[in-house]
Design brief:
By secondary structure, the protein is mainly alpha-helical. The chain is 80% helix and 0% strand. It contains seven helices and no strands. The protein has helices spanning 4-32, 35-38, 42-52, 65-87, 96-124, 127-184, 191-202. The protein is elongated and about 85 Å long. It starts with a helix and ends in a 5-residue tail after the last helix. 12% of the residues are buried. InterPro entries: Neuro-gated_channel_TM_sf, Neuro_actylchol_rec, Neurotrans-gated_channel_TM. This is Neurotransmitter-gated ion-channel transmembrane domain-containing protein. The chain crosses the membrane at residues 67-84, 96-118, 138-158. It comes from Mytilus edulis. It holds the Pfam family Neur_chan_memb.
């Protein structure tokens, strides 16, 4: 009799162990970037850089300093992103932090485009028209900023609940298989026997 069921259990256990080690590594990385070591979390730093873009509207619309300050903030965000990336484990998918950084860079790009457009408009339009357009731009960008954070918070909450549910379900399956193996011993480690046990457990029959 082959122990294919035992191999399946061991493979499942190794996958769970890898996930636990990865989570532990991520937690350690987050601790290393905590307030006591790095001066704050990456998200709060990116949020601060993004909020600082609104301070550029205090500069005269016709001044080129607006665009210069915004480009400086954009380059600062890119540099900080590269630094944070070195402190986190390499993975093949986008994390919440990656999505937030991308959105922050897009927002900085929109602000830079707005400053470039209004700089060009200052040549052809009156000061009153430029100030009116500038006020509309501030309201629009502020609305985009607030709407994104609300949507992003909802997205994080929903996906976190979904992933937590999946992990709890997988943990239950693993514990059920492990309990079956411990109860019947090494000779019972067949895929068919495990499936029969699992079907009885789901049906309400205790082993």
């Amino acid at each position: 009799m082959t122990n294919s069921g035992g191999v399946h259990i061991r493979e499942f256990g190794l996958k769970m162990r890898e996930k636990i080690l990865y989570v532990s590594k991520c937690e350690q990385s987050c601790k290393n970037m905590g307030p006591t070591n790095k001066g704050g979390s990456p998200v709060s730093t990116f949020s601060l850089i993004t909020v600082l873009t609104f301070t550029t509207f205090s500069i005269e619309p016709s001044s080129a300093d607006r665009l210069g300050v915004t480009i400086t903030l954009l380059l600062t965000s890119v540099t900080f992103k590269l630094i944070v990336k070195q402190s986190l484990p390499t993975i093949s998918y986008l994390t919440y932090l990656d999505l937030y950084v991308i959105a922050a860079l897009v927002f900085l790009g929109l602000t830079s485009a707005q400053h470039a457009i209004i700089r060009y408009m200052s040549i052809k339009y009156t000061e009153a028209q430029i100030n009116q357009y500038d006020n509309y731009s501030i309201i629009t960008l502020l609305g985009i900023f607030i709407a994104f954070h609300v949507i992003f918070a909802i997205y994080m909450r929903l996906t976190a609940i979904k992933r937590r549910t999946i992990m709890v379900e997988k943990d239950k399956i693993y514990k059920s298989k492990r309990k079956f193996i411990n109860h019947f011993g090494e000779n019972a480690r067949t895929e068919k026997a495990i499936e029969q046990s699992m079907s009885k457990t789901r049906g309400g029959t205790r082993i």
